[in-house]
Each structure stands twice: as structure tokens, then as C-alpha cells.
Write a structure and sequence with these properties.
By secondary structure, this protein is an alpha+beta fold. Helices cover about 55% and strands about 15% of the residues.
Length: about 425
């Protein structure tokens, strides 16, 4: 028999047992739906994290901190002198033991692949002065090149220039504008606190206006003004009464084309006093959590498919028993063993195909229904957390067909080995 004739016959046989075929296919569809949803959730989760990563950080940035050295405790369990204990604590808590200094900044800046290295400094803005009145102002430092959503203006290389400032949109009217672009180029005076409680003012030129949204990724957004790390270092020096010489963290920006992981290794090669982490590592850590969650959900789908295997085997065995005389007639008319085996394998494959397609279709319907609800609930900024992967779905359907064929192997073999004379005797 030709393959096409066998396939047509397999389809007709399944139509004759519609209810049984549909029920078996639905059993497979449960697993197919679960796995498709797991793949969709994994894909959507990765897309969301990628979008989130570009908004909360810079993929080319590296942070360097001091590796804290702890004093090893003596093995003796006997009583220790109080002075000795205090000395150990003093050593552990000394600033030099957990901070970086100008020598570290110089070394890190000179590493191949480093475009710029800026120390993290603490600045305390007190107020914004407008027409003699003081208003509350929060000033933060933009160390990296992560992109900002701006209402007006632009930032060269996503960095704030020296002497410039990014103003929050909520301050537009206070600064004499009707729309964000009206205040571009204007100067603002911000008052900062010194360590001795006195204050000083610094003037900035507005180069851009933030969009002022408090979306899901800006948990602590407080209508912030953003300044450059260079200005922040100068302000911290004035506040401190002299140049700041110790730092908690140094933020490194890698050059274009350089791999942050390779630059990280070069910094680590400077000595064992540094803890170095890249933003890419933090992103990969979160991404790995999403993949693990998706794999766990897919595992449930795998269990459902495993259970459906027994349904396929049962269905095929019943089919063999019901059609024994038909099989005998086909053999007596010249059908080969291989033709009979193919007929049952094709039937199994069609059941697997039907179950897979139903499973993917159900998953697509569920994704269409739930995506708007999830987006509104978790404020995903338009990113669908359930994204059906067409290629992955096609592979899944093909895999389910293969599983069905393997499941139907023994029933097909039983049918192929039937003696035509004995088979014809069966009523």
C-alpha cells in the first residue's frame, strides 16, 4: 500500500471512532497546553526582564567594591582578653578594611577596556531656590548610560554633562514653563548641606526633562534631579570639607565593543581586594530564575503527557481488538505486515498531532485572554508575559506526534503479527 493510502485509511479509522479519538487527543492536549504555557511564560518573562534591564541598568556597567577581610578566630576556645577582642573588632570595622581609595580608582581607570570609572559619593541636597523661595529637591547621580524616558531635551551618550542637570517634569511650571521644552537651557540653583550643617549653592543648566513617571521599575522615584558624577564628586568634596578619598563602590563603564566579563577579569587580576560584578551577571541571575520557573511548569506538562501515553496505548489496543477481522481481511487481500503496522502508527501520529494542535490552540486562547489582565495587574508597560512561540509550538506538536507513535508501537506490532486466518475467525 502507498503511504498516502495508509494515511487516508488511518484518518478514516479515527473518524469512525470520533469520541475515543477526541478524548485521547484531549488527554494529550492537557500536557500540550501546559508546556506551551510554560514556554510562553518563559519567553514573556525573558522579554520583560530584557526590557526591565535596559531601564534599570546599563549592560556595559560594572560595580567594584572592596572585598571585606575578616579576622580569623583563634582555634583556642579559652577566654580572651577584652582588649584583644576590641582590637579585632576595631580592625574589622576600620574604614580602610571595607572601602576603596584613590589608588584603587587610579588602577581601575587604567584597566584595558575601561572607558570611565566613577566613585560613588554621598550628596545631600537641601532645597531648590526659585525666586527667593526654597522648595524641596531630591538630587541623584547618574553614573551609567542607561537610557531615560525624557519629555524634552537629550543626553549625549545617555550621560549628564558637567554643570548640567535633568529636571523632573513635575517642576516645569515651578520653573516658569508651560511645557517641558520651555525650561530647557534655564539655570537652577540647588542648595547642598555640608558636614558642619552649613550650606552652599551650586548652579546647573537644565539639559533635559525627565518624563516624571513613577512606573513599576522606579519604586522610589521622588521627582529627582539628576546630575553628573563629576559634579557629584565636586559637591561631595565641598560638603566633606575636602576631597573625598574613600569610596564604598566604584562604578565602571566599559568601552564600546568590550565585553564586561573580560573587563571584570582584568580588574580581578589587579589583586584579591576587589569584589566585581557586572550588570549582565545580575540580569542573568534573574533570567535563570525565570528559566527554572518555566522548566518547573513544563515538567508538570511532561507528567500530563506521560499519563496520556497510557491513554494512547489503551486506545490503540482497543482499536486492534475491535478491528481484528478487518486486519485479517486486509492481510488476506495482500496487505503486508509493515502496511498494518504503519496504519496503526499513522493513527497514533494523527492523535498526537490533533492533541498537540488543540493544546497549542487552547494555550493561545488563554494567553489572549489573560495577557491584558496580567499587564494591568503587574504594570508590565505593554509587554505580554505570555508570548506563544510558534517555532517552539511546532516542535512541541512534532514531539507529541513522536511520543504518540512510540506509545502505539506495541499495539501496532500486535496488529502486524496477527495471523490472517485467525483474525478472520474473530467476530
Amino acid at each position: 500500500m502507498r503511504r498516502i493510502d495508509i494515511a487516508k485509511r488511518a484518518g478514516k479509522n479515527l473518524k469512525l471512532a470520533k469520541v475515543r479519538t477526541i478524548l485521547t487527543a484531549l488527554a494529550i492536549a492537557v500536557g500540550g497546553t501546559t508546556i506551551t504555557m510554560a514556554l510562553a511564560a518563559g519567553r514573556g518573562g525573558r522579554a520583560y526582564i530584557d526590557g526591565m534591564a535596559s531601564r534599570v541598568g546599563d549592560m556595559d556597567s560594572i560595580s567594584v567594591s572592596r572585598k571585606v577581610e575578616t579576622v580569623e578566630k583563634e582555634k583556642s576556645s579559652g577566654p580572651k582578653k577584652l582588649s584583644q577582642v576590641e582590637a579585632e573588632i576595631t580592625q574589622q570595622l576600620s574604614e580602610e578594611s571595607y572601602t576603596l581609595n584613590d589608588e584603587d580608582l587610579k588602577k581601575i581607570s587604567a584597566v584595558q577596556g575601561v572607558e570611565r570609572a566613577n566613585p560613588q559619593v554621598d550628596i545631600q541636597a537641601k532645597s531648590l531656590t526659585v525666586d527667593g523661595e526654597e522648595y524641596e529637591a531630591t538630587v541623584k547621580v547618574k553614573y551609567d548610560k542607561k537610557s531615560l524616558q525624557l519629555s524634552a531635551g537629550e543626553l549625549k551618550n545617555n550621560l549628564v554633562g558637567t554643570g548640567e542637570i535633568v529636571a523632573p517634569k513635575s517642576y516645569v511650571q515651578l520653573l516658569g514653563g508651560q511645557k517641558p521644552s520651555d525650561i530647557l537651557g534655564k539655570t537652577v540653583r540647588i542648595k547642598f548641606s555640608k558636614r558642619d550643617q552649613s550650606t552652599f549653592e551650586k548652579t546647573f543648566k537644565i539639559s533635559a526633562v525627565d518624563n516624571g513617571t513613577d512606573d513599576d521599575l522606579r519604586f522610589s522615584y521622588q521627582n529627582e534631579f539628576l546630575i553628573s558624577s563629576e559634579d557629584a564628586t565636586e559637591i561631595a568634596g565641598i560638603s566633606n570639607g575636602g576631597k573625598v578619598a574613600i569610596y564604598g563602590v566604584i562604578f565602571v563603564q566599559t568601552k564600546k565593543g568590550e565585553k564586561p566579563a573580560e573587563v571584570k577579569n582584568r580588574i580581578l587580576a589587579l589583586g584579591d581586594r576587589y569584589n566585581v560584578s557586572t550588570f549582565e551577571e545580575e540580569r542573568a541571575s534573574i533570567m535563570n530564575s525565570v528559566n527554572v520557573a518555566a522548566a518547573g511548569l513544563a515538567a508538570f506538562g511532561g507528567l500530563a503527557i506521560l499519563a496520556s501515553v497510557f491513554g494512547i496505548v489503551n486506545t490503540q489496543y482497543i482499536s486492534v481488538l475491535e478491528r481484528t477481522s478487518q486486519i485479517g481481511l486486509m492481510k488476506s487481500l495482500g496487505a503486508k505486515k509493515s502496511d498494518i503496522a504503519k496504519l496503526f502508527r499513522y493513527e497514533a501520529a494523527l492523535i498526537g498531532f490533533l492533541g498537540g494542535v488543540i493544546g497549542v490552540a487552547i494555550a493561545a486562547i488563554l494567553a489572549t485572554i489573560f495577557n491584558p489582565m496580567i499587564s494591568n495587574m503587574f504594570r508590565t508597560n505593554g509587554v505580554n508575559l505570555l508570548q506563544i512561540d510558534l517555532i517552539g509550538s511546532a516542535i512541541l506538536v512534532a514531539g507529541l506526534m513522536l511520543v504518540a507513535v512510540v506509545s502505539g508501537f506495541f499495539p501496532a506490532r500486535k496488529a502486524a503479527r496477527l495471523n490472517p486466518i485467525d483474525a478472520l475467525r474473530v467476530e
